[in-house]
Amino acid sequence: MIDHLDKQTVDLFQTAKRGRGRPVTGQAMTNAERQKRYRQSLKIKTVTVTNNQDTDDTDWQSRAHAIQSELDTLRDYLTRLEGCVDRRNTIISDLRGEMALIKSQLSQLKGQLTKCRNENRLLRSKIQHLELQADVNKL
Which one-letter DSSP state was computed for residue 12? Predict the structure, then answer.
């Protein structure tokens, strides 16, 4: 048992106090190592361009011919796409015209519906009025 009044004796199993700050991992790099690693990453990122003068003119001509044929193919494809876009634009404009016509017809029908509903209410009120008069006349 520990005497709480005795200040001179020390506990046998003292827990080590944790130091302040981030704990040490033992894998920290020095500034020189960090700088070396940065320079290596810069070397990897750089682009090196080599100019080969050994290629023949025929090789360049064949490449130019291949590129020209690919360009012609792409131009034909673009022309077909433009035609398709033009057809779709005409269809869209036709559909917009039809939509405007349908909207005007719809607004006319809504007006007729409102008119019919008002007439229906008026007729119902007249019927109720006539039924009340018939009930009064029976009495």
Answer: S
Query: For the chain, how many structural domains are there in total?
Result: 1
**Is pLDDT above 70 for 31?**
yes
- The answer to whether 37 and 29 have CB atoms below 8 angstroms apart is yes
* Domain span including residue 82: 60-138
Q: What is the DSSP letter of 24?
A: P
Q: What is the CA radius of gyration of the chain?
A: 47
Q: Is residue 90 part of a domain?
A: yes
- Amino acid at position 85, single letter: V
**For residue 64, pLDDT beyond 70:** yes
**Token digits of residue 109:** 């029908």
DSSP label of 21: S
- Model confidence, pTM: 0.42
Contacts with 2 (C-beta within 8 Å, 6 or more apart), sequence order? 11
Q: Which residues contact 28 (CB under 8 A, 6 or more apart)?
A: none
How large is the average pLDDT for residues 81-98? Answer: 97
Give the ranges where the chain is alpha helix by DSSP (H): 31-45, 57-138
Cα three-residue angle 74-78-82, rounded to 5 degrees: 175
